[in-house]
Design a protein that fits this description.
By secondary structure, the protein is mainly α. The protein has one domain. Helices cover 65% and strands 0% of the residues. It is built from two helices and no strands. Helix 1 crosses helix 2. It is elongated, with a radius of gyration of 17 Å.
């Protein structure tokens, strides 16, 4: 994964509020995980960010389509 895209997904993960990040990790994110916690947390953030990014794109396209339909209906 390219670093710029990974950074985009990490930023999108900061807006994730639906579930705690540990639901996206089989490894768990508890403090007892040790050094592997950073890797597990990073993977969970990428997953949450991917869901947020896809949701934003889907909603943007949905509203664009609704606007186009409304504009066409007014003719």
């Amino acid at each position: 994964m390219d670093d710029e895209y990974a950074a985009h997904l990490q930023a999108a993960a900061d807006r994730w509020r639906a579930f705690p990040l540990d639901v996206f990790s089989d490894d768990g994110l508890g403090p007892d995980l040790g050094p592997e916690r950073g890797h597990a947390l990073g993977a969970a953030r990428i997953t949450a960010g991917a869901i947020m990014s896809a949701t934003e794109t889907l909603l943007d396209q949905l509203f664009d389509d609704l606007i186009q339909l409304a504009d066409g209906a007014g003719r």
